[in-house]
């Protein structure tokens, strides 16, 4: 039958073994001497052997006690060390987590806050996955990413995803720098009916937004080309193949050579960018600490998804 000693019994045994004095050991354990004696006796009873030889003048370890002592020390040390690690994890000072982000945001918004957070939390590691909107939401839902940084999820996902917006990302037009549109301070969405149009890929968070604006304005547009990569889209535009829409925050992802960036008006359109977390799933300590720091960096208050239960980078920039 397997013997189960409690941590209290092991700690009491170690204290007596270290002091060879029950009164001194009781003081170390913050218990009375009779209570300590009962604890040691309980351990001896479970083991079926004496751990100490004792009389009115002297306490010594038995051979069984000498055999148990290094084992007891190791068990107590490993437990305390593990609990210390857990405490650091719960406090957000140790551990790892994954962020799933739209590529434009991974390039423009996340690097600085990540650098500041990791400098203050050297025992934390962050995995960053640069993926499409659909993949960000899927990863948050299935738990492969604790945090998503993305555009606002569709309303039918509100039951599963908590979304905290922190910035508006304006949509802008890109055109060749020699195009007459490049000399304008702002242009209307009507231009998409007048120039070859390069559409974003079907997985892009921009595509349904752009299509909705065009439909609301009753502007009929048949895309001449389709591109799933913003850098490729930008090079196609610079080569004179057409015009396109990109979010302002994506400007840092594209090579501006040969391009002009023009405000879109009538209407001006922006998308909400925010932090997505899974409802009903508590964030780990490190992830919660990062969300707090990240939103504070953008002037936003306390996030939801408390760690206590209250509520490798992938290439490509298909957006």
Note down, in words, how this protein is organized.
By secondary structure, the chain is an alpha/beta fold. The chain is 39% helix and 22% strand. It contains ten helices and twelve strands. The chain has helices at 7-19, 22-29, 33-47, 63-90, 103-108, 111-120, 133-142, 206-216, 230-238, 285-297, and strands at residues 52-54, 59-61, 95-101, 124-130, 147-151, 161-176, 186-188, 198-200, 225-227, 244-247, 259-265, 270-278. β1 (52-54) and β2 form a beta hairpin. α1 packs across α4 (63-90) and α2 crosses α3 (33-47). The longest helix is centred in the first third of the chain and has 28 residues, at 63-90. Mean pLDDT is 86; it is low at 303-319.
Would you kindly provide a brief summary of this structure?
With 319 residues, the protein is an alpha/beta fold.
Give the key terms.
8-stranded mixed β-sheet, 319 residues, rod-shaped, 10 helices, 39% helix, disordered C terminus
Overall pLDDT confidence: 86
**Major β-sheet annotation:** 8 strands, mixed
Calculate the terminal CA-CA distance, rounded to whole Å.
61 Å
* Beta-strand content: 15-25%
Regarding quaternary structure, what we see is single chain
Question: How many helices in DSSP terms?
Answer: 10
Spans where pLDDT lies below 50 across 5 or more residues? 303-319
Large-scale geometry:
rod-shaped
Overall SS class: alpha/beta
Instruction: Give the beta-strand count.
Output: 12
The radius of gyration over CA amounts to 31 Å
Q: What helical percentage do the residues reach?
A: 25-40%
String of helices and strands: HHHEEHEHHEHEEEEHEHEEEH
